Amino acid sequence: MDDYVRLAGLATELVNTAPGVWHGEDQLADTADLRAFLAEHGVDAEPAASDLDAVRELRTRLREVLDARDAETIASGASELVARGLGTVGLAADARGHQQWCARPRPDADLADRLALLGGLGVLGALRTLGPERFRDCASDTCSGVFIDTTRPGRRRYCMPDLCGNRANVAAYRARRRADS
Question: What is the pTM of this model?
């Protein structure tokens, strides 16, 4: 539970797989896409076809939580997500032998419940550590993505800096070139 940055990233990147964020294309079009998303985020699971719709529904609920801008609404929504998949909470030793809090999913939790637990913990950790002002919309005119700015200086502007940020920089460069012509 110490790594809220990674879990907050998982939550926002799951939300940003929705149609409309990437030019109307659903980035979770099938179970192969879901499998790739899980592998990219270190979630050890083999998704079934039935998991896809449940994860898409979770994505919608996570979006609602991330779109909230007040701490109470964010905390309430994220807590509901955590409760959805939570089994037990306790102390466990990490790789270095240090004790840390550990949340385990219910034994019968499906993939969406497990992702709800992870995403909810990431959102709660970011909210506690950084505050609600770090929950933002992408600054790109062509994107409807959202993100939690977990950078140290807190100046991040784009949900996907390598994509949305580059597009904005290219557009600004072209506009300057046209103005100079």
Answer: 0.87
CATH number at residue 124: 1.10.3300.10
Q: For residue range 19-75, list pLDDT tens digits in order.
A: 978 777 899 999 999 999 999 999 999 999 999 999 999 999 999 999 998 999 999
Domain holding 33, by residue range, is 4-133
Distance between CA atoms of 136 and 150, rounded to whole angstroms? 11
Please tell me the distance from the alpha carbon of residue 111 to that of residue 117, in angstroms, as a whole number.
10
Total domains present in the chain: 1
Q: Is residue 117 part of a domain?
A: yes
Give the separation between CA 130 and CA 99, rounded to whole angstroms: 24
Residues 66-98: tens digit of each pLDDT: 999 899 999 999 999 999 999 998 888 888 888
| Alpha-carbon span 170 to 164, nearest angstrom | 10
Per-residue CA distances from 135 to 14, 73, 122, 126, 181 (Å): 15, 12, 12, 9, 39
Residue 17 lies in a domain: yes
C-alpha distances out from residue 16 to 3, 66, 92, 94, Å = 20, 11, 32, 31
